[in-house]
Structures are given as C-alpha cells and as structure tokens.
Amino acid sequence: MAAAALPTTVVLRADSSKKYYLRYVHQGGDKHQCMESSGETVLSPFAKLELECAKDTPAAQGLFHIRCCSNNRYLQLAQANKETNKIDPRIVAAAKSPEEDQSKTTCTLFKVTVLSDDPTAPGGRQLSINLLHVNLNQYAHISSSPDSKYGSCLFVGDTAQDSDRAFHVTNWESLVFLPKYITFKGENGRYLSAYEGKYGHRLGFRVDEIGDPTVGFEISANHDGTVRIKSMDTGLFWQYTTSTMVVPWASGEAGTDDDDETTFFQPVKVKDNAIALRTVSPHRNYCSTMLSGYKNEDELHAMDRNVTRFAQLEVAEFVISRKIYNVDFRLTEGRIYNHNVVVKGKGVAVNSTEKPNTASVRLSYRDVKSSSWRAGLSLKVGVKSTLSVGLKILKIFKMRGQLELSAQLAGSYHWGETDDEASRVETTYQVVVPPMSKVTVAAMACTATCDVSFSHTQHDTLYNGRQVISVVDGGIYTGTQSYDMKYETKVEKLAS
C-alpha cells in the first residue's frame, strides 16, 4: 500500500493483545519513556502517535518517523549500555528531533509494511501493519517475558516478518471525544428527554429548556471508543432493542451490564457541534427521529442506514459553569516549531556631513502574542470557563529553544479559542553613520510556535446542581510569539 494511504495520527494495538493499546509511559520509574502495551482505552492522549514521512526518501518506500504526541518525542532505540556498549533493544519515545541517517543507531526511521487492509469492515477500517527498525533491520514486537521488568514494552529483535509482530491501526481522527455530561438536540429544535411513556421508558425530542432535569446524559467511554449513555435523571442506560428498532431505556440488569453490546453506541462527528450515533449490535443503524407524520415521531429510533438530517444530533454540555485550576505543564516535553525570521520594524539615520555621526534610530513595531488552550475533545461545545491558571504565556528562551512560564492570567476563556495579545513596542538603537551616508536599521526577530501538554483540575456545576471535580489529562497549550531580537544595518552612500 502507498504510504499516502496511511492515517497521519494513529493508535497502535499489537494483534497479540486484543485489549491493550500501545501507550507512552509517563509516570516515571524504570519504564519511563517506554512504549508499553498497557493502554486501557484507545482514547488515551498517551496512545496518540503521528506518522511523519521521511524527507530524504520517496514516500513509496514507506519510511516514517513516529512521534509520540504526548511528549513530542520520536521513537528510537534506547541508549546503549555505556559499560558494554551493547545495544538496548527497547523502543522509547526520547528523540527530540528526527534522524534520517540510516547508519546510526539513533536513526528514528521505521519501514511500515501493510499486512492487511479492509476499509469496508462493519466496525470500520481494519488495518494491520509491521514496523521495521531501519538501522537494525529488525521488526518491532511486544515483549512477552513475564520475568522482565520491561514486560509488555515495545522491543525490536525479530528479523522475520509475520502476523505475530503485527499491529492493528486505529485512525485517531476517526475517534470522537465527547464531554462527560451532555445534551442532545434533534432536527425539530428540541432537546432529547428521558420520560415515562405508556409502554415504559422512552427517549423523545420534546423539551425546550436545557435546564430540564430529564435532558442531561452521562457518557461512559469503552476501551474501543464506543460509548454507553446514561440518563442522569433515571440512572438507566440507553439500549437498542431489535424487536421495535427503537432506542428505549435499558431496564432491569441490562443497563448495568458492561459487556452488553446493545448498550454500545459509536459516535460519528458530522459538524463541529453535532454527531450521529450508530448502534453496535445487532445492526449498525443510526439513531434518529421518525419522519413527520409517523406515530410517536419525536421518539428516538435506530433505523437509518446513513446519516440523514434526522440522525444529526446537536451536542451541548450539561454544565452551567466551569473553573479550571492546578494547571500542570510538562515543560520538558514541549515542542517548538515553525521558526521564522521576520522584520519587525525599520528606521533610517542620515549623515550629510563630512564626519562620522552617532545617531539614535527610533524603531516602532507591533508585537503580537497568541495563546490557545485545547482540551482533548472533538466538538466545539465547550463551556466558557473561569481560569485560575496563574500562568498564561510560555516564554521561549532565545538561546536554547527552552521554555519558561510567565504572565499571570485570570478571567473567562473558551477552550479552543485563540487569544491574541497585541502591543506597540518602541525602542532606540544607537548607530554610527559614516560621512555622507544613510543607514537603515532593521529590527529582526525570530517567531515560533510551541505546543505544551498539560493536565488540570476542573470544577463543573451542572444544570441539576451537581458539583463535579475531576482531574483532566490531554490538554494542549499552543503559543506563538517573537524572541531573540537582533538588529541589522545597511549603509548607503548619499548622492553627490
């Protein structure tokens, strides 16, 4: 398969493990920076990997750098033992930059070979690959040694290509990350409500007010990205019944059975604020309202084979207010990119005498800094949050591309929005102007963007009055700014 057909961001699961996903070990200890087959959910931010095509070889060769998005490091061999110089076959997320010299053990290139690909599989595309470490010419695999302290970690060491070393690929972009507490609005403009009907519990688009206690739903994500949905009013889970093709409330013990696939639904993003929900078993139909004119037309059914306008559900958070605090940046794992040198401002000094002259050139320019905070959600339905972060701008050191924290911030902010801060800067530069000359002074600066992951504590007040405090991982701070100001001069002789 051509390299271009592979997803850009992926989650990997060894075919030998039907349950656990490959994840970055961030907790420290002996396994720190290892890639371990222990991730319990495909939605974990520590499982997200990015495939970057090699720059110096044709894409058709299938050579990629693999970047761990959680710590912004590339996968490479662990450092060799300093005493014996023996190669350490562990694969760790430790390289700060890609290395394409295939003769070096620090080479970060992997050859990706597609073993099987079924884009029409009922549960979504089924893609399986091998990973060959280019420098060692050995395949990656999961250690199965129960005695090793690195058991279940990613190693290289096999020269044979077979299915035992295969990895199942999930396209990260196909996953939908939903807020914990949400509401659904249907095609008729009304909220989905849990109510007691003539024949038992039902779901219907019949409420106009988001604060109604019957419209709040709690999302529980399964390990594969499917979800279970529970009414916050009744405490019962959604369930798909094959007899009526309707999604009623799960009754009795069925709604609390974690393995009952009739309570599983696959979210599919259709807009920035809307999804479709597809049943998992026994049929893969989309939930929707009935066409106008049908009996009980406002009830939720699961009969659509495609995402019709009746199957598009607008999502909003069931949250009145939110406070964010205890933001913990992982500065050592920050990523700085998009380096550019730009001219900030110019000034001119003229000396029309026969002697050198020292002049003060005044420069004025507009300096813009931007910041954005992104939670790990797929939809733009975030509640306006009160931040008590204490730190807003991540300042880039001008010498070594390192990061430091500065600038106090408190106030209201929407997750995902970009906050631009512009200021007028005036500076003076002393320059010696030769006789009968003109000197142009240009203020030059580097601009760059940084991405830094963070965790935070979140305090939500729900519409039903419930207070929920949780620690949330997977946030990304992005900042763009100028640094390392320098001045360049250009001397021109005046016309005689």
Keywords:
496 residues, mainly beta, Trefoil (Acidic Fibroblast Growth Factor, subunit A), 3 domains, 6-stranded antiparallel β-barrel, 32 strands, 0% helix, Agglutinin_dom_sf, Agglutinin domain-containing protein, Agglutinin, Natterin_C
Alpha carbon gap, first and last residue? 69 Å
Q: What overall form do the CA principal axes indicate?
A: globular
Low-pLDDT stretches are 252-256
Derived from helix and strand composition plus strand pairing, the structural class reads: mainly beta
CATH architecture heading of the largest domain: Beta Complex
Short description:
With about 500 residues, the chain is mostly beta strands. The chain has no helices and 32 strands. It folds into three domains: about 5-175, Trefoil (Acidic Fibroblast Growth Factor, subunit A), CATH 2.80.10; about 180-315, Trefoil (Trefoil (Acidic Fibroblast Growth Factor, subunit A)); about 320-495, Beta Complex (Proaerolysin, Chain A, domain 3), CATH 2.170.15.10.
Structural write-up:
- There is one protein chain.
- This protein is mostly beta strands and 496 residues long.
- The chain has three domains: 3-174, Trefoil (Acidic Fibroblast Growth Factor, subunit A); 181-317, Trefoil (Acidic Fibroblast Growth Factor, subunit A) (Trefoil), CATH 2.80.10; 320-493, Proaerolysin, Chain A, domain 3 (Beta Complex).
- Helix content is 0%, strand content 52%.
- The protein has no helices and 32 strands.
- The strands form seven sheets. Strands 23, 24, 25, 26, 29, 30, 31 and 32 form an eight-stranded mixed sheet that branches.
- The radius of gyration is 28 Å and the shape is globular.
- The relative contact order is 0.11.
